[in-house]
Amino acid sequence: MWLGASDKKDELSRTTLIVSLSTFALFCFLWVAKQAGKTVPPLPPATKSEGFIILSSSLSVLDSQNSYVSNTVSAMWLGWLGASSEKDELPRTTLIVSLFTFALFCFLWVAKQTRKTVPPLPPGPRGLPLVGYLPFLGTEPHKKFEELAGIYGPIYKVWLGKKLCVVVNSPSLVKEVVRDQDTTFANRDPPVAALAATYGGADIAFLPYGHEWKKLRKIFVREMLSNASLDGSYTLRREQLRKGIRNVYEKIGTPIDVGELTFATLINVMMSLLWGGTLQEDEGANIAAEFKALLAELMVLFAKPNVSDFFPALARFDLQGIERDAKSIFEWNERIFDSAIDMRLKYLAKAKDEGPGITEQKEDFLQILLELRERDDAATSITTTQIKALLLDVLVGGSDTTTTMVEWAMAELMHHPEAMRRVHGELTEMVGLDCIVEESHLPKLNYLGAVIKETFRLHPALPLLVPRSPSQSSTIGGYTVPKGARIMLNVWAIHRDPKIWDNPLEFRPERFLNDSGRLDYSGNDFNYLPFGSGRRICAGLPLAEKTLKYVLASLLHQFEWQLPPSTELDLSDRFGIVTKKRMPLIAIPTPRLSEPELYTK
Ligand code: HEM
């Protein structure tokens, strides 16, 4: 079959084989003819060249059952090859040529087989020399990637400058990445700006998979965000949220930027979880305002396409100054963290002098982390840099994402009055209009839960998750994914795939009501992945889930929200590290609750 095949790639090795076989046949013919015309010659003196030894020993193996014949034949070969008779010249040359050609054939065949076992790179659009597909990506890469999925299928590649990106668009291939080969794909591919702003990538989000990442993640999930720790910090969250609600109440009847209000509230919530009341009231307020500006700037920097990321050879020139700006944010950040740590240490020293009891109220994240720093055990103790990296993960991971989702959910509800009525109905029934929402109410708010899930489906905050990178060359969907490539899991396309979702572009929370909880945030169903999946799934998920529902339930329970007169609701988005509403949601609150005191509690 192979000899008759017309595959051009096989042509060279086929020709080589044919030449080698025919030369060998010619040699056999000449040798037999020669043997027929003479008697067996006496044994010549052995000439010990390497080739003779190999040849003789291989013949011995072939004929190991008859050592006499074997010895005789090998002796003949040795003698014949070593002889200098002119009569032997032709068959000898023929043998050498045939052996050489045969070896060449074997070499080509093995090379071809090796090539065959390495699958090709995924298909993908052709780009321009040097810049690849960068000029065609536009300002909405998530939509462009969705469009390309329609053309190239469940996996494709794009070259962005010198960076090979592989985009995975189907649940079954996402599963190959985050479940079947999760360890291999558990590295990140941090952009230059992220490295500059996160202690060189020393935080959970950007550390490569390995011991340090596992240690920090364990501390984050088991110590900082454990159920006990979250329950214990409820009063901190409640206090900050109540402050936010009071703020809204003071502006009743006037247009409010919902995103701005939520962001400010969440920064306060996160800072309170980080270091509680360490900072004085007005100092805390100043720092919260500074952080707000800092994070907003950081998000802009992270979202900017950076030449240094696409052309690593140019990174040291920092052509756009992005690394420089990220470093200056980092320094600012560093000062705030240092001062909070310093104040806490002074407080602890004072507490030690003044006797026990005073430290008990401070079970915030900073306290947990400082206690870990004091441990002698290298496996669990952490450095000051790691403390700051973890604090940063809470602030960066927790504020912009959650704010974005509050804004989207509010906007979708205002766009779908029937869904808004249902949410209000549920809140009235489960909480009542004579008291305020507490976290204990949240599990009962099923419809609001479905609204949030549907919002995540239509508007995933990170539509391509946080890119991963394989630690070794691997195969996904039958294609090679080389070590170090950037892997983007296209949650945006999966959440909008009509083969998976009925009328995917419609906002229909009901689709999550009757799924018996199958579609949750755990990342086990690869059709629905707003928080990612596998080892690298969002580390802040328990806090995110709680905070988002708590903030939304409170804003919706206590107020009706209307658009300002003669404005229209805009539901378009703007791609970024977190993909948000293009236009801020501006809405006018009016009170829903019976007693004004309920707003100032
Ligand atoms: C609505 C809110 C949030 C959303 C939508 C969100 C989404 C995500 C996503 C998609 C990832 C990447 C997962 C992957 O690669 O598979 C991620 C990672 C991460 N998130 Fe969140 N997140 C949210 C809130 C939070 C909060 C509140 C925190 C911290 C308290 C947080 C901390 C982190 C960290 C540390 C990582 C990196 C995990 C790792 O690489 O191991 N996130 N998040």
TrEMBL record:
Keywords, in A-Z order: Heme, Iron, Membrane, Metal-binding, Monooxygenase, Oxidoreductase, Transmembrane, Transmembrane helix
InterPro entries on file: Cyt_P450, Cyt_P450_CS, Cyt_P450_E_grp-I, Cyt_P450_sf
Keyword Nucleotide-binding part of the UniProt annotation: no
Cofactor(s) listed: heme
Residues binding heme: 538
SUPFAM superfamilies from the UniProt entry: Cytochrome P450
Domain of life: Eukaryota
Entries under PROSITE patterns matching the protein: CYTOCHROME_P450
TM segment ranges: 12-33, 93-111
Record has Secreted as a keyword: no
Family membership: Belongs to the cytochrome P450 family.
Protein name per Swiss-Prot or TrEMBL: Geraniol 8-hydroxylase
Source lineage: Eukaryota, Viridiplantae, Streptophyta, Embryophyta, Tracheophyta
An annotated Gene Ontology molecular function: iron ion binding
Gene3D superfamilies the UniProt entry points to: Cytochrome P450 (1.10.630.10)
